[in-house]
Amino acid sequence: MRFVWAVAAFVLAALLIGAGIAQRTIFQGPTTSTTQISVDSDAPYLMIDGAVLNTSEGTQTLRAQAEGDIFAAYGRTVDMKAWLADTSYTSVTAAADGDVRMRVVEPAALSEDAEEAVVHSAVGSDLWLDEFQQSDVLIAPLQLPDDMSVLVATDGTASAPTDVSISWPIGNGTPWAGPLMVLGGAFLAIGAFLYILGIRHARRSRGPRRKGLPLAATEPIDLAVEGADKGVISSGTPRRALEYRRAFAIVPAVAVSALLFTGCSADAWPQFAPSPTPTPTASVVAPEGQKAPAVTKAQAERILARVASTVAEADEARDPALAASRLDGAALGVRETNYTLRGAIAEHPVLPAVLTKPLEILLPQAFEEWPRSFMAVVDDEETKTSSIMFLTQSDAWAPYKLAYVASLEASTEMPGLAPAYIGASQIPPDSSFLLLPPDQMAAAYADVLNNGEDSEFATLFDAENDQFRVGIEADRAKRLEEFNQTGAQTGTLTFNSSAGEEIPISLATIESGAIVAVNIYETDTVKPTNADAVIKVDGNETVKSLAGASQSTTGFETVFSDQLFFYVPGQGSSEKIRLLGYGSDILDAKVIP
Q1: Which of the 8 DSSP states describes residue 267?
Q2: CB 91 within 8 A of CB 102
Q3: How far apart are CA 377 and CA 422, in angstroms?
Q4: For residue 517, which phi and psi values (nearest 5 degrees)?
Q5: Taking a C-beta distance cutoff of 8 angstroms, is the pair 162, 66 a contact?
Q6: Is 119 in a helix, a strand, or coil?
Q7: What is the dihedral of CA 480, 486, 492, 495, to 10 degrees?
Q8: Do the Cβ atoms of 233 and 168 come closer than 8 Å?
Q9: Number of domains observed in the structure of the chain
Q10: Average of pLDDT values for 5-18?
Q11: Scanning 232, 292, 334, 378, which has its CA 20 to 30 A from the CA of 478?
């Protein structure tokens, strides 16, 4: 009977193990779902809409094949369409029934005069959230929402790849394959055990034997006989050898079970772990109708790295044209002056490098048109200082440029800002909702620097924590005292602050205020007081190099450019305008005509 049960266990084990293996092989089915996009146009770009990418659930894998280099990038659909506005491209969209539709989009400029089309390079554009480049075959894993699209191209002039596909994973897990094979292995072990018991029982329970022929009378054994001649005959297998056989009989069953379990992946087992419960966090709700933020944090970090790399290269080569590709406004003006001075004075210092990380604060403008901007605060872990910056982009094809940069006050307390995934609106220059409109900030603060507490705007500004104002007053007093010791009889030294030429940039804060960046000029003027006097600047190599003269009968004028960041409260607030950060560098020096 034991043999019957052993055979039954073996049969059941074979069925269970076979069912488990079949689930993982012939019954498993495909692991991915693929949509093939066959392009039949000569357009240089292929734009795949986010709706196509989300026709199936799960992560997307883009595959494009063509000879040579293949380029792909993804970004917001509105940004991508703006970038493609002046070129032809193939648009791939999804219909209501899920079918993929393709059409060639021609810009208005091409229909009038195709030869005047402007060719832009998609490689390295600041609009993309990420980009990929591979040769012959490009495979890019994606996970994009409906409002993002993918751009595919070769070199931007030749036809885009025509063999493109998108695939999604199919949830074809076999959670019972593992348990079936485990259970089959258990029955295999039970069958082997029953088989051993059956063999043991058969040996012990041999039936009655027939009587044989009469045996000769036994004789005493002669103990003197050596070896095999003693007449002692072994009656069976030694017990130790039998135990070894039983032990080795179980080995095949255990080995087979272990081999079955090897290679069973996680999706071959039931998942009983509960779904994680999200932890509630404080959130900020975007105002109704507000657009998407101009950049993401990863995008801003990449832009800052590109700006810093280009500026460092321009600093080393003292190349103002290269610097202008990533700098603008006040930030560019002081850099160009620095290159001039370093070319004339060997020991003149280089301006501080652009900081890139860690990016502690990001406030992007919530805007889908141009120009657009974002504010960044980056810490310098080595010097324990921070930089606050405004970067702007003039159009869809232009790179972001650093327009304002300053050092934060050591004890600066930033106002409440919207998170980076929401962004902030830009405040119009003439806004009446702030304590002072942005386009009046530079002139008002310049008046405070000139007149101190006598300024009509003095009560609007926080003077207690304004270290820049304290430093300006102390520097002017010290320089005037030194000048009066030697030149008071023959000349005058005067100081004047005025609004700079650069347009202010401002982004809204949560408390209905704004962070405003402005440019101010500080002008130092030295003039003789009589016709026979001559103003000499032999000891000032900076002024001498910029002005191109060491002395003048009419005097010298030196201009410093200040980049200032303020927090401006809204109308009706009890707070005052606070200076957040500042930077000051020489901009120009000239002989007074």
Answers
A1: G
A2: yes
A3: 17
A4: -110, 130
A5: yes
A6: coil
A7: -20
A8: no
A9: 3
A10: 79
A11: 334
**Are 106 and 193 found together in one domain?**
no
Q: What is the rounded CA–CA span in Å between residue 523 and residue 20?
A: 85
- Backbone φ and ψ of 143, nearest 5°: -155, 75
Residues 417 and 368 grouped into a single domain: yes
As a whole number of angstroms, the distance between CA 465 and CA 296 comes to: 32
The token duo for 413 is: 């307390």
Residue 562 and residue 436 share a domain: yes
**Which structure tokens are listed for 125?**
């554009």
Q: Quick one: tokens of 150? A: 């993918």
**Separation in Å, CA 165 to CA 126, 135, 179, 236:** 26, 16, 37, 73
Contact predicate 563/519, CB 8 Å: yes
Q: What is the DSSP string of 276-324?
A: PPPPP----PPPTTPPPBS--HHHHHHHHHHHHHHHHHHHHHT-HHHHH
Main-chain dihedrals φ then ψ at residue 530, nearest 5 degrees: -145, 165
Calculate what percentage of the chain has a pLDDT beyond 90.
60
* Integer Cα distance of 283 and 422 in angstroms: 10
Q: Is residue 206 part of a domain?
A: no
- 280 lies in some domain: no
DSSP output for 172-234: ---TTHHHHHHHHHHHHHHHHHHHHHHHHHHHHTPPPPPP-SPPPPP----TTS-GGGG----
Specify if 238 maps to a domain: no
Name, in order, each residue with C-beta under 8 angstroms of 5's C-beta and a sequence gap of 6 or more. 191, 194
Q: For residue 415, what pLDDT band results from cuts at 50, 70 and 90?
A: very high
d(CA 492, CA 529): 7
Q: How far apart are the first and last CA of the chain?
A: 123
Do 88 and 36 belong to one domain? yes
**Segment 256-295, tens digit of pLDDT:** 444 445 555 555 556 555 555 555 554 556 666 778 999 9
199: burial class by Cβ within 10 Å (0-12, 13-18, 19+)? middle
| Tokens (6 digits) for 407 | 């050092």
Q: Please confirm whether the linkage preceding 364 is cis (ω < 30° from 0).
A: no
Is 0.85 surpassed by the pTM of this model?
no
Return the residue matching tokens 């304590």.
Answer: 435
Residue whose C-alpha is closest to residue 65's, from 122, 155, 132, 135: 135
What pLDDT, on a 0 to 100 scale, did the predictor assign at position 154? 93
Task: From 45, 104, 113, 52, select the one nearest 80 (Cα to Cα).
Answer: 45
